[in-house]
Specification:
The protein is of the alpha+beta class and about 110 residues long. About 25% of the residues lie in helices and about 40% in strands. It has 2 helices and 6 strands.
Length: about 110
């Protein structure tokens, strides 16, 4: 592990309803995010009670999580972009410090 170079980034975990996936990914791409992972059909409990991860009506009715790693400079603009959205819709963004190998994979 000594020859593994690690770089510090911020991890964003954005949880929202699947019907808003295009809005979220468009916002991320316009902010300069070069990649992300989408996890579908989340289950969990929050302020709105328990949410089942199975499809009830269509793919838009489930919760999704979009995970991305960004430079610290991108965090504030992304959070500002989501602020009006979360004033009207359910969801949350978790921000944490992470270490990544292969920094080139996270640069545009």
């Amino acid at each position: 592990m000594n020859n593994l170079n690690l770089s510090t980034l911020k991890k964003l975990e954005i949880i929202l309803e699947g019907e808003h996936q295009a809005f979220a990914t468009d916002l991320l791409e316009r902010a300069g995010v070069t990649g992300y992972t989408i996890v579908n059909k989340l289950s969990g409990k929050g302020s709105h009670g328990f949410h089942e991860g199975h499809v009830m009506f269509n793919e838009d009715s489930v919760l999704i999580m979009i995970i991305t790693a960004v430079s610290e400079e991108l965090v504030e603009p992304i959070l500002e972009g989501f602020a009006p959205f979360f004033n009207e819709h359910t969801g949350v963004i978790f921000v944490s410090d992470i270490q990544v190998s292969r920094l080139v994979k996270f640069q545009g």
